[in-house]
Amino acid sequence: MNKVIVKINSKQKNDKQNTIKMKALANAYTKNGILYVIYKEKETSTMLKIQKDSLTLTRTGGVQQQQVFVEGKESVSDYITPYGNLKMKVKTHRLEIITGMKSTIKIDYALYINNSWQSDNELMIRLEPAN
Predict the structure, then answer these.
(1) Strand, helix or coil for residue 43
(2) Disulfide-capable partner of 96 in 5, 34, 106, 127 (CB 3.0 to 4.6 Å)?
């Protein structure tokens, strides 16, 4: 298992644009050609499963969710919180995955909550060795 730094830049575009930046130390490993990256955000553990044409984001702990991003596809999941559950859907418009010593994942998608459009989003995830 390798230590990597995960840098996330998320832009939410609706009436106004919001940007969220996050950085975390993560564990990364490869199994059967699939890259797994695991990190913590407060009480929530997040696992990224990175394949050549998809990204699966799984959260457990404070919230529970599994979201799959595949270019040109829709993915529906339950977002489970202590305060209630939401039905989330993403329509992935673009997914670009570049792996190597430094990896970059770019995703453009539309977010729907309970079948109501919320925002168009740009998500960029960068992975780099922690050493």
Answers:
(1) coil
(2) 106
Question: Based on the number of CB atoms within 10 Å of its own CB, is 39 exposed (0-12), middle (13-18) or buried (19 or more)?
Answer: buried
Q: What does the alpha-carbon distance between residue 104 and residue 98 come to, in Å, rounded to a whole number?
A: 5
Instruction: Give the distance from CA 57 to its chain's centroid.
Output: 5
Enter the tokens of residue 1. Answer: 């298992």
Query: What is the pTM assigned to this prediction?
Result: 0.92
Look at the block and give the residue holding tokens 């559950």. 85
- Distance between CA atoms of residues 11 and 26, nearest Å: 22
22 torsion bin: left (phi>0), alpha (psi -120 to 50), beta (else): beta
For 51, other C-beta atoms within 10 Å of its C-beta total 14
DSSP single-letter state for residue 34: E
Backbone angles phi, psi at 103, to 5 degrees: -110, 150
Phi-psi bin for 114: left (phi > 0), alpha (psi -120 to 50), beta?
Answer: left
What SS3 class is residue 96?
Answer: strand
pLDDT in tens, 81-111: 999 999 999 999 999 999 888 999 999 999 9
